[in-house]
Specification:
alpha+beta; three-stranded mixed β-sheet; 2 helices; globular
């Protein structure tokens, strides 16, 4: 008999996510790793995740939630993040989501 813990996923529907609610059977944290080459939109994805977890609708998104001191000047079409970043966000119902970003170089 297998004694491993079982995590039962409850589907997070669009309406719950719109309100910043993640449905899960356990209050376990989520970890997301975002990898990508320069300019693919890693920071934009993180801003989107943060806004969803805070329950903001698309008309009220805040694209200044990340630490932008890790960026250098350049064109808007190119990534400007200098090094790996780690962020922790909480959903409106207290689920912790940890996100790390890494730049992949050719």
């Amino acid at each position: 008999m297998d004694d491993a813990p079982v995590l039962t996923r409850l589907p997070s529907d669009v309406d719950s996510l719109k309100g910043g609610i993640i449905k899960t059977s356990k209050n376990a944290p989520y970890t997301i790793l975002v990898l990508g080459e320069t300019g693919v939109g890693k920071s934009l994805v993180l801003e989107f995740i943060a806004n969803v977890l805070h329950g903001k609708d698309i008309d009220n998104y805040d694209f200044n939630t990340l630490n932008h001191t890790n960026e250098r000047g350049g064109s808007a079409s190119q990534s400007q993040t200098d090094s790996a970043q780690f962020y922790e966000f909480k959903s409106r119902n207290g689920i912790l989501v940890s996100v790390s970003t890494f730049l992949c170089r050719k």
